[in-house]
Every structure is written in structure tokens, then in C-alpha cells.
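TA notes. Do not distribute before section.
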Amino acid sequence: PKGFMDKSQLLQARAMLNTTRYAMEYEAVFAKDSEGFYRRSLIESCVTNDPIMLPSGDNVEFDVMLTGNPNKKYVYGIDPASETDYFSIIILEINGSHRRAIYCWTCNRQLMRERLKSKQQTNLQSFYSYCARKILDLMKVFPTDHIAIDAQGGGIAVMEALHDISNLHDGEQPLWPYIRHKNDEKNPFYWEKTNKPSDGEAGLHILHMIEFAKAEFTHSANHNLRKDLETRSLLFPKFDTVLLSEAIIEDKKYERYYDTLEDCVIEIEALKDELTTIEHSQTPSGRDKWDTPATVEAGGKK
């Protein structure tokens, strides 16, 4: 009704939210689908609440995981950030006919300080050393041969922390950039440079340093991801409120206070929500662009 809310608040909300979200929050209009590059209906069609039958004949249904299958291989995607955004890790399980998004973890500097304080731990002062330690710990339960890291926004610091001997525990090996041999024409990692300075270093050469913001990569990554969703080559774990309640009970049973099963469930739900907000547009020069909707703060600042 008129006068129920302050007009300036409504104008600010209209500027900050996309059309679908504004209609849901302020007009009680519930959209049948999202309007972004990744439609909500497309993402939900890849959620295994009910078993999904693939063309290969596989009947797929699975939950989020805190521990992987030692007989499977996993691929890590890492977006390093620390202040305004979160450092995030997503892990995919590789299967013959499809891939599964089975684990997601996020952190920022403030969360790191709170966790270290609760554990009375002070030996990991660097944020990127803390995140590198998390990656090394995850490798013990999610075995991998490939870790993709954004080369910008702290990516180099993460890479250096992963081969810093002071961060390693007994039996662990330093991690270095991937080695691509000059004559290996069939190598799927065609973008990797040959003869890197780190090629001769001892350790595991499993890091792929990628410029996530590079136009060529962004174009390929977004179109390939949407194709994988359309063909159900990438699937998400099942989710409902009962499963979330069961996750909370399991966390209490094993006395997990952070990096819990509940956290993992919620993070993957947030990942799906954020995918639906990604919009595709073109710059004046005709170049494709993918981004989340711009938000406008009080005073007109974007």
C-alpha cells in the first residue's frame, strides 16, 4: 500500500536488485524462472534430489561430501580473495559420464582470525598460508592431479605458499605449476606455457595458474559450463531441509564447529544462487561480458 515503505528505500532497492529479485522482495510476484545466463530451471534440473538417468545409463544421486572416495580423482577450482570477497574452493568429482560438485569452502581474513583464536593457534599468521594449509589438508581426502587457481587477486601468493617448506607437514610435497612438454601437441592444457622456471623443481606439478578474468577464458568457461548443465555432464548434490537437519546432527555428533557438513551444504546452495544472478551482455565494442548485477549504494555509488 502507498506510504507503507519509505520511497527512497524502494528506489534504492530497485537500483540494487535485478528485476526478478525486486519483484519477489517488494511486489510479491514470484517468477517462474530466473533471467540470467544460467536459468534457475536449468540448474535445478541438474540437482539429484531424484535420481537422474544419464544417456550412458547411469542413475545418479549423491550428497555433499567432506571426505572423497580414494578410488576417484578430483579437480579443484580456487578463486583467491580475502577482503571484500571470499577465498573459495570448489571440488568436482570426476566420473566416466559426468562430474559432480561435491564440496565447497569459503573464507576471508575475519573468519580466519576467529577460527585461529578459537583454536588458540597462532602459527599461521598469513591468510594465504592458512588457505594453502586448507588445500593441502583437502588433498588428503580428495586426491587430485589438477588444481586451477586464478593467477590474479592473490593467486601467486597462494601458489608460493603451496611450495613453502614451512607450510608443509611430514610426508607432504610442495606443489608447483604444471609441466607442459614442448612436443606434446595432444595435451588438453594447451594454454600452459612450456619451459617454465619451475619445471625442474622437486614436488607435485599439478597447479594450473589461469587468468579467470581474461576474455577468451571467460567466454569459453561460461559457454562450456552452460553446455555441461544442459547435457547434465555436471551435477549438483541433492538438497532439502531434512538433509540439512541431518547434516547439523552429524556435525554435533563429530564435534565439528566450523568447515562442517552443514557449511558445505549451504555453500553449494549459495553457489547455485550466485550462478543464477550472472548476466550476459556485450560491451560497446561487441565483446561478450559476464557479470553479476551492479549494486548501487546510498549516494549513487556503484
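Switch to the second chain here.
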Amino acid sequence: MELECAKARELKNKLSAHQDTISTLKQQKDAQIKLYKTREDKEIEKVIDLENKVKVLDNIVYKTGQSVQMMKMLNNKCQTSFAKPENLKKAKQANPRLYDICCYNDNLALMLSPDSDE
């Protein structure tokens, strides 16, 4: 009988040791899961931030491309000067008021002036 009691105590001790091991392993497992979840959340946030930055930079590149395209279109279609200076002189002689810059500057000054009577 004493032998059976000793075996029972030994088995109880082994059982409690195994239960302690199981509880520490569960705690370690939970700690690892929590650590990996926080790391994963941080990585997901980084990916989202990088995707947002890519969208912003793509938008900038798109707008820059549109601006360059518009400038090329305007430069090709609109000529701001006469190809030959003689043609400019003839145009000034035909309609001098059109090419009189002082006239436009005076009107612009009158329009922008707050005390203007006109």
C-alpha cells in the first residue's frame, strides 16, 4: 500500500510539473502571437503609408506630365513673334495702337487703381 501511495505521489508530482510546463509554454505562445501581431500591424501600416506615398508621387508625376504636355502644345501652336522683323514693322504701321504697350499699361494701371474715376 505504501508503494502504491508513493507511486501516486510521484505521478501527481509529474502531473503538476507537466501542467506547469504546459502553462509556461502557453504563456510563451501567447506572448509570441502578440509580438507577431504587433509586428504584422506595423508592417501593414508601413505598406499602407508607402502606397499612399506612391499615389501622391504618381499624382505629381501625372500633373507634371500634363503641364509639360500643355507647354509643348502651347509652344507649338502659339507663336509669340513674327518670323520676319519686316512683317512686324508692317503690322505696326497698319495698326499702331495694337502694338502700343504704353497704352495697355496705362489702361491696366487705371483698372487696378482703387481711386480711379473711370
